[in-house]
C-alpha cells in the first residue's frame, strides 16, 4: 500500500535559520515524489519533484529535497528561512494506476517564520 | 501561471440546494481533477476526468457528480448540498501522467448553511 506521513504538523523557525520539513513514504512501486506549497488563501504550487533521476532535487525559492530510498524519506530543506516561506507544505507520492495517476497526499506541515 | 479559472470563488448556500462549481482551463490539458480540502484531512480526490466525457470517481465521490463536455471545462455538481460539503474545492489539471505534476486553480470556498 502507498502512504505518506508528514512527521510534523507545525514547524516554527526564525527568519534566517534553516528549515527542515520531514516526509516519509511507503510505496510498492518506484514512486515519484513531490512537495507542493500553499500560501494562505491560494492554490497549490509545485515546489519540486523527484522522478527517479538525481536523488537531490532542487526546487523554487531555494528549497531542495533528498530522496533516500533506504530511509523511505523525502525531507524538504532550505538553508535560510524567509518570511515569505510561511505557508502550508504538502508531500505527495505519485504512481500510475490504470488510466490515472494516483496521488497520495500528506496532511501538510504548517511552516511559521518568526522575525 | 497555468490558465485555470474556478468559479464561483466564494459561495454560500442552504442545505438541500443544488450547487455547480466550474473549472475552466486554457492549457488544452487532458486530465482534470476536483479535490476538496478540509482541516485535518489534507486534499481528497472527489472525481477526475481523463478526457472529454471520460470521468471516474475518487475517494470521496458520494454526493457529487461531474461532467466534461469539452476539453476546457470540468463541472462539479452537488445535487443537494449538505453541511458536510462545506469545504474549499480545488480544480487541478495535468497534461501528462508521466510525472504526476498537477497545476491548481485558486480554489472555491463553499459554505452550506
Oligomer: heterodimer
pLDDT averaged residue by residue of chain A = 91
Helix content range of chain B: under 10%
Report the sheet with the most strands of chain A, covering strand number, pairing sense and barrel closure.
Answer: 6 strands, mixed
Structure, described:
The complex is a heterodimer of chains A (about 120) and B (about 110). Chain A is mainly β and about 120 residues long. Chain A is built from no helices and 12 strands. The mean pLDDT of chain A is about 90. Chain B is globular, with a radius of gyration of 13 Å. Helix content of chain B is about 0%, strand content about 60%. Chain B has strands spanning about 5, 10-15, 20-25, 30-40, 40-50, 55, 65-70, 75-80, 85-95, 105, 110. In chain B, the strands form 2 sheets. In chain B, strands 2, 4, 5, 6, 9, 10 and 11 form a 7-stranded mixed β-sheet that branches. In chain B, strands 1-3-8-7 form a 4-stranded antiparallel β-sheet, with no helix packed on it. Chain B has about 110 residues and is mainly β. The interface between A and B is medium-sized, with 23 and 25 residues.
Features:
heterodimer; A: 115 residues; mainly beta; six-stranded mixed sheet; 0% helix; 58% strand; globular; B: 113 residues; seven-stranded mixed sheet; four-stranded antiparallel sheet; 11 strands
Short description:
The complex is a heterodimer of chains A (115) and B (113). Chain A is an all-beta fold.
Topology readout:
The complex is a heterodimer of chains A (115) and B (113).
Chain A: E1 3-6, E2 10-14, E3 19-21, E4 23-26, E5 32-38, E6 44-50, E7 56-58, E8 64-68, E9 73-78, E10 87-97, E11 100-105, E12 109-114
Parallel strand pairs in A: 2-12
Antiparallel strand pairs in A: 1-4, 3-9, 5-6, 5-10, 7-8, 8-9, 10-11, 10-12
Chain B: E1 4-7, E2 10-13, E3 19-25, E4 31-38, E5 42-51, E6 54-57, E7 64-70, E8 73-78, E9 87-94, E10 103-104, E11 108-112
Amino acid at each position: 500500500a502507498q502512504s505518506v506521513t508528514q512527521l510534523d504538523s507545525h514547524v516554527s523557525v526564525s527568519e534566517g535559520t534553516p528549515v527542515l520539513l520531514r516526509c516519509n513514504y511507503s510505496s510498492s512501486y518506484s514512486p515519484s515524489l513531490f512537495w507542493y506549497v500553499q500560501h494562505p488563501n491560494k492554490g497549490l504550487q509545485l515546489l519540486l519533484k523527484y522522478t527517479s533521476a538525481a536523488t537531490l532535487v532542487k526546487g523554487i525559492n531555494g528549497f531542495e529535497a533528498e530522496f533516500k530510498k533506504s530511509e523511505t524519506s523525502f525531507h524538504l530543506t532550505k538553508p535560510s528561512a524567509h518570511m515569505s516561506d510561511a505557508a502550508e507544505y504538502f508531500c505527495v507520492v505519485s504512481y500510475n494506476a490504470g488510466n490515472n495517476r494516483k496521488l497520495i497526499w500528506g496532511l501538510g506541515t504548517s511552516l511559521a517564520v518568526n522575525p | 501561471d497555468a490558465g485555470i479559472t474556478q468559479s464561483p470563488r466564494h459561495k454560500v448556500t442552504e442545505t438541500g440546494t443544488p450547487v455547480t462549481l466550474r473549472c475552466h482551463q486554457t492549457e488544452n490539458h487532458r486530465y482534470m481533477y476536483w479535490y476538496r480540502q478540509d482541516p485535518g484531512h489534507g486534499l481528497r480526490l472527489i472525481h477526475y476526468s481523463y478526457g472529454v466525457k471520460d470521468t471516474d470517481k475518487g475517494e470521496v465521490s458520494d454526493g457529487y457528480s461531474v461532467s466534461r463536455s469539452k476539453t476546457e471545462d470540468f463541472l462539479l455538481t452537488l445535487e443537494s448540498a449538505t453541511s458536510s460539503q462545506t469545504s474549499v474545492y480545488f480544480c487541478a489539471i495535468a497534461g501528462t501522467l508521466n510525472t504526476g505534476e498537477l497545476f491548481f486553480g485558486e480554489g472555491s470556498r463553499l459554505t452550506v448553511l
